[in-house]
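Progress against Task 2.4 (sequence-to-structure conversion) is shown through the following example record, which the project officer requested during the mid-term review.
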Amino acid sequence: MNGVEENIQRMLEHAEEMRRIAFSFENPLIVSHYDCDGIAARAIVEYAFRREWKKYRAVSIKKLDEKAIEKLRREREIIFVDLGSGNEMVNELRDVIIIDHHQPVRIEKQQINPWMFGMDGGSEVSSSGVASIVFGCRRDLAVVGALGDMQYPFKSVNRYIVDEGKRKGEVEEEYDITLYGRHSRPLHAFLAYSDEPYIPTISYNEENAMKLLSEIGLEIKKGEGWRTYSDLSRSERRKLISALADIMIEYDMDVGGLVGEVYSLPNYDEKSIMHDAHEFATMLNACGRHHEPDVGVEAALENELAYGKAEELLRVHKNSIREGVAFAKSNMIDFGYFYFIDGRKKIYEGIIGIVCGMVIRVSYEKPIIGISESEEGGIKVSSRGNRKMLERGLNLGRIMREAAESVGGVGGGHHLAAGAEIPKDRINEFLLAVGIELKRL
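Structure tokens generated for the chain above:
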């Protein structure tokens, strides 16, 4: 047994005790974060409680701050999911357990967190993965949560979860095209409205997408219905991938992101957004960012009415992101040690992090810091880095926390994806503090 396997085994053993404590609660309040991973993790915990006919209540929140803690003081039993490890104020609450993957501070309550076992919660497992391990179920939702937290490609605990999911018939893995909408979109829309990766002349251009399909001899209809990518034969798929790669090479773009491991979830209908794990993750993110996390949870647990509403939220979400990315690419400023996106009045706070994450996929050598106005009247900050920066020692979670605290705000997160909330009149001081920290790398 190697070191990674030993760490996973220790985590599995601790998970049994955490499950016992969770099910000993009489009527706990499940409190999760409102992003994709938090929603997926909450759905896993709710599924486990429903399966055992256990009483519970549940809520998803944007942040675990002093105001949220104050409201929770009246609760006797709380299960934190994708929250809790980074806030010492949870020590002031009553009966609490924490299922999390964020960098922990000094917590006195019962918790399970990969950092406790020598593993990186930013890249090796998300909270939905930890929840899946605790309750021994729903590896499919764990995969969705990990994708939502940008932990692809999978390794360590995530790889263990995928392998278990394949063995249990919950997850299918193949090496294929990575564009969004393999199962759910008509071929021409699949090409025209996918931008991860961006395909020059094709992305956002339905007419050119139709023209390309015609030129390479692919029929876009089957009878009266539209064909999807999943309807194509292997030879047709190879022909399409080759044509897209040729376009990217012509524009001196890296084709590495065009194909990779993709994940299908056989327990969901093949034509549903939820059949494709990446599409599912985007849908849950849309639900959270548009203040409807309950819709995401119920959709994940196969409530048809909730799924219909989640689809509509996804459409709105994708349009907002598309507009935000276009603005960011045209208005990004080089601040020396990082790139800066001022999204105030232009990019909604719920997607500023997603926009930064999409922009950083281009081969930038410096982190991206984006800001937007928060609903509370302050400034929401999001920061993103890439793997090359991690190798140089980048820890945005620490930088965001320390820079935010220096101006009276709060911050934190992971090495390559972190955020902060700061007063609106102290932006320049905050950016200066970030620059000083990045200069030291």
